[in-house]
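Predict the 3D structure for this chain.
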Amino acid sequence: MYNLFVANDVGRWDMSYFTYQIDRVFEYTADNLSKRYKKFGTSARDELMNFPSLFAYEKHNQIDARIGWINNIKVTPTFVVIDHELDLSFPPISATSLNELGAKLDIHSGEMNRTHWAIKNRDLLDVLFEAGLIQQRKPKDFNVFLCYASEDKDRVEILYNFLLKGGIKAWFNRKSILPGQDWEAEIHEAIINSHVILVCLSSQSITKEGFVQKEIRKALDISGEKPDGAIFIIPARLENCEVPRTLTRYQWVDLFLEDGYEKVFEALRKRAADLSIRIKKRL
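Done. Predicted structure below.
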């Protein structure tokens, strides 16, 4: 499923939000889908925001379409306001290509001549991938590695669940390693493939010898390959404890304070934006 948004005003999709008259919402949409979503209940909104969206212009403009996402939906008796963002990890889709793929994307004849919002029962990214217009069948994941001492696993699991809720793929060995896997090799691979390392610190972890220190050293080695100023290692204190000397060059965050989790999330969003990877806004 995907959302198709069509507009006439050039530059409309460069803004953070746009408005449709209610009678333009779910035009050219199958009756069963229109009925399912037109009341905009909580579950309906959540589903719509999880669908990829194609932001296109009316055909006569001959302007590239973009792939993106809905972040929020506000409904009034006469208007629907959409808060959205473009996904820069996907290239523009030319108007010519879009026209050629009309049947595969369930875009009706004449539909691109009218400003409207439609829901289509097609796999947008799969169709574009098969046509060679994009290089991936799904959005890029933003990967965060959680480095911690086993004594802190319960507190770190709270952080793990918070990140998942925010649309961040967190690597947490308690959840991410399957029975029978080589756990040391899996951890090594996860660190290499992560965009950010969250080093969870406590009085136990900073004094404990063993694999957690090896993880930190590996993260520090990789950090030397990152551009200056890139957020890669974030020391995250679980309690009021000393930050190891090797990590004091990085600004740390105190997760035990009221705004600690929000600060982590904002740092991760900045890193993701620098990499042109989308993190969905938390609801």
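The longest helix spans residues 260-274.
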